TrEMBL record:
Assigned keywords, A-Z: Carbohydrate metabolism, Lyase
One Pfam entry name: GKRP_SIS_N
Record-annotated active site: E92 (proton donor), E123
Job of this protein: Specifically catalyzes the cleavage of the D-lactyl ether substituent of MurNAc 6-phosphate, producing GlcNAc 6-phosphate and D-lactate.
NCBIfam families: N-acetylmuramic acid 6-phosphate etherase, PRK05441.1, PRK12570.1
Full protein name: N-acetylmuramic acid 6-phosphate etherase
UniProt source species: Streptomyces zaomyceticus
Alphabetized InterPro entries for the sequence: Etherase_MurQ, Glucokinase_regulatory_CS, MURQ/GCKR, SIS_dom, SIS_dom_sf
Length: 308
């Protein structure tokens, strides 16, 4: 047994996410309904763990939004499940908030193929993270979020360490207290949902916790950037029939206008929901609406209150 292996094994034994639960040692003998109830009970504890980190999450979001308002990017980096969750969150921003794919980026150790098949050794490489950040041309306006349930993944730690040397904002999201990842980042977020139902299977509660936090980071950042009007997704990209129908419904909810007026406004606005809403509520044409939105940096509420 190598010294490195022994050291890693000892390190894992100290992690809450790796803890063995003897009371569940015979879970495989239970009826399916009881196992499902156990899992459901475990999952119900995750939001409380997230709630304990809300001040840290809010501070990280405000800092992220400030950078993105200057043209910066939000970059998620992780390995395995953590990396997949980052890629998932990033990939949902363009259709939800009409962001350019380059604005919110998800990188997984080992590249795109690692989304469906493990790439051995990729998570252990700090150098790989550095190379990918260099390829992206990271600047001081960007935000890099390292994601790791254990909080010890070299790829995630390397990402935030290198990003800090470039002046970028760094966030470290882990599911263990006193993690190396949180210590390496400017904003450490440690959501600790406790030992897993299956020992060390961090795609369970830890994965759920990470998903909830990433939901907050992207969604609230986009709210701060004016991508919503109230709780309406006014920057939604109508790329299919369902989203086209949703666009019409959003304009209707925001304006109360009749269908004919909505169709006319959307046509004149080239399908842009935010522009159509402003046209109707301010009683202006598409060109004027676009100008107001440009002057208000895309914030619909500010554009509505702007002087004509």
């Amino acid at each position: 047994m190598s010294a490195t292996y022994s050291e890693l094994r000892a390190q894992l034994a100290t992690l809450t996410t790796e803890a063995f639960r003897p009371e569940l040692a015979e879970i495989d003998q239970l009826p399916t309904a009881e196992i499902a109830a156990l899992m459901n009970g475990e999952d119900a504890t995750v939001p409380a763990a997230v709630a304990r980190q809300l001040p840290a999450i809010a501070a990280a979001i405000d800092a992220t939004a400030a950078r993105m308002a200057r043209g910066g990017r939000l970059i998620y980096m992780g390995a395995g499940t953590a990396g997949r969750l980052g890629v998932l969150d990033a990939s949902e921003c363009p259709p939800t908030f009409n962001t350019d794919p380059s604005q919110v980026v998800g990188l997984i150790a080992g590249g795109p193929s690692a989304m469906v098949k493990a790439v051995e050794g990729a998570e252990d490489s700090k150098e790989l993270a550095e190379q990918e950040l260099t390829a992206l041309g990271v600047t001081a306006d960007d935000t890099v979020v390292g994601i790791s349930a254990s909080g010890r993944t070299p790829y995630a730690i390397g990402a935030v360490e290198h990003a800090r040397t470039l002046g970028a904002l760094t966030i470290g999201l882990s599911c263990n207290a006193d993690s190396a990842l949180a210590a390496a980042a400017e904003h450490g977020i440690e959501v600790v949902p406790g030992p897993e139902l299956l020992t060390g299977s961090t795609r369970l509660k830890a994965g759920t916790a990470q998903k909830l936090v990433l939901n907050m980071i992207s969604t609230i950042t986009m709210i701060r950037l004016g991508k919503t009007y109230g709780n309406l997704m006014v920057d939604v990209r109508a790329s299919n029939e369902k989203l086209q129908a949703r666009s019409r419904r959003i304009v209707a909810l925001a304006t109360g206008a009749p269908d004919e007026q909505i169709e006319t406004a959307l046509a004149a606005a080239d399908g842009e929901v935010k522009t159509a809403i402003l046209m109707i509520l301010a009683d202006i044409d598409a060109k004027s609406a676009d100008q107001r939105l440009t002057h208000s940096q895309g914030h619909l509420r500010a554009a509505l209150h702007a002087q004509p």
